[in-house]
Every structure is written in C-alpha cells, then in structure tokens.
Amino acid sequence: NYLVQILLNVPLLISVPEVRLILIGGRWAGKSSSGNTILRSERFECGRIRTVQSELRHQDVEGRTLIVVDAPGWSSSLSLTEIPELDKQRFKLNPSKCSPGPHVFLLVIPIDSAFSVEQKMTLLGEGVWKHTITVFTRGDWLGAHTIEEYIEGEGEALQSLVEQCGNRYHVVDNKNADDGTQITELLEKIMGTVAANGWSHFVPDDQIRVTIEERRIRVEQGAKQRQSQVKAKMQTFKGTFLSHSISVTNKLI
C-alpha cells in the first residue's frame, strides 16, 4: 500500500525537498534512539539523559532532507486527566516546532512496556491520526514472534490504536542501528503516508489553534504586565531615592 501511494504521487514527491517528522511517546520509550536510527547518526543525546524540551535535528537521508523533532515524553503511568495542564499545553505546541507543520508523527511505543497513549493523542485533535505511524521500539524483544502476533496478543486497546493510525506501524531495533533495511522500510511507510495526504502537513483543529493563540496572547500580556510592574517599581525607587537625597542635602545645609 505504501509503495502504491508513492508511485501514484511520484512527480509530487520528487519536487519536495524535505520531510518533517515529530517523535512523540512516553518517557524512556526510545524516541531519541529512534531519531538517531532514522537520521543514521548520533544527533540526539540518549541514555541517562531524559528529553526535557523539544530538540530539532536534520540530516540528508537517501536523497531527501529529514527534519526530526524529538518531543519530551509523557509519564506513561498518568491518565489524561492526571497530566498537569502546562504539560498538555506544551504537548499541543509540538507541531509548531517544525514550521509550518509536521508531515508525520512517529508514535513511539516500546514492545516490552505497557502503554496508554490514545487519550493523550486526542489533545492534537482528530486530524492527527492520518498523519501518524506507530513505531514499536525494542524489536529484539519479539524473539521468534511477528509484530502482528504481538499486536493481536496485546488485546483490543493496542489493536484499536493501530487501526486509528490506519494500520501504519513499524518495528525498529535501535540496538541494531546499522541495519539500514529497517529504516529504508520505515522511510517507505513515511513517504506513503505523506503521499496519501497529498503532501499536506498536519494542521491543528480550529479549536486547538484558538487555544494555542489564546495561550500566546496570555503569555505576551503577562510579559508586558511584568515589564510594567518592574518599571513602576523602578520609578518608585527613583522617587524614594531622590527624596532621600534631597532630605540628606537639606540637613547638611
């Protein structure tokens, strides 16, 4: 299916020089490692360091510039209602990290871990699903089993998630990053997804855009208010200092 979509849109795909991707998922899911595997170079710091703010890297891969954003992960143990409001707002702002918007979200889920992501994805609106590919990390944990057997065995929740993503999924083994085949296949799926969307990048729902704009206005207003308060305090300080200086001068006279 991915190759069919690519072949149907070959002229359009050839004319576009870059693909913008955002890695999203839980903490310690392997997003940074996956980013390095995709870019075929150590561009994101991995290991004991947790991603605390969005990081953007780019690299030419197989004749096309890939722009990859590694977004901070969420706590997998928290439900949507338990996530702090500030973290929700930051998550909603992820698409703006690669202007004018990402072509594909790579939803990173470790094979050996429990997951709870579908509710969190709704923060970006219903339109996010047609731009999303589920990427299962730690592929070595599958052993002799196929990814299809794993998805079926995990039950309805995972099956529903994969269906929401249009049955677009891929397995990567970041410990075997030198295996170029797994990334070539992922790139085919990415390009197939991009082609299926007519090369249109993700655009947040109207309500989300309104929320983001309202937040931006509040931040700007807050900054202006703080500046005004600082200026007022400085004026008060200058007035007090001047009055004190005049008083001291008069006493000396």
Number of E strands = 6
Percent in helix:
40-55%
Give the CATH H-level superfamily of the largest domain. P-loop containing nucleotide triphosphate hydrolases
Number of helices: 9
Task: Looking at this protein, list some descriptive labels.
253 residues; alpha/beta; Rossmann fold; 2 domains; six-stranded mixed beta sheet; 9 helices; elongated
Explain the overall architecture.
This protein is of the alpha/beta class. The chain has two domains: 2-204, P-loop containing nucleotide triphosphate hydrolases (Rossmann fold, 3-Layer(aba) Sandwich); 205-253. It is built from nine helices and six strands. A six-stranded mixed β-sheet has the order 2-3-1-4-5-6, covered by helices on one side. β4, α5 (118-121) and β5 form a beta-alpha-beta unit. The radius of gyration is 24 Å and the shape is elongated. The model has no long low-confidence stretch (mean pLDDT 80).
Outline of the structure:
This protein has 253 residues and is an alpha/beta fold. The protein folds into 2 domains: 2-204, P-loop containing nucleotide triphosphate hydrolases (Rossmann fold); 205-253. The chain has 9 helices and 6 strands; from the N terminus they run ααβαββαβαβααβαα.
Please specify the SSE layout and strand pairing:
Blueprint: H1 2-8, H2 10-14, E1 18-25, H3 31-39, E2 55-61, E3 64-70, H4 85-92, E4 104-110, H5 118-121, E5 132-137, H6 147-154, H7 156-164, E6 169-171, H8 180-196, H9 206-252
Parallel strand pairs: 1-3, 1-4, 4-5, 5-6
Antiparallel strand pairs: 2-3
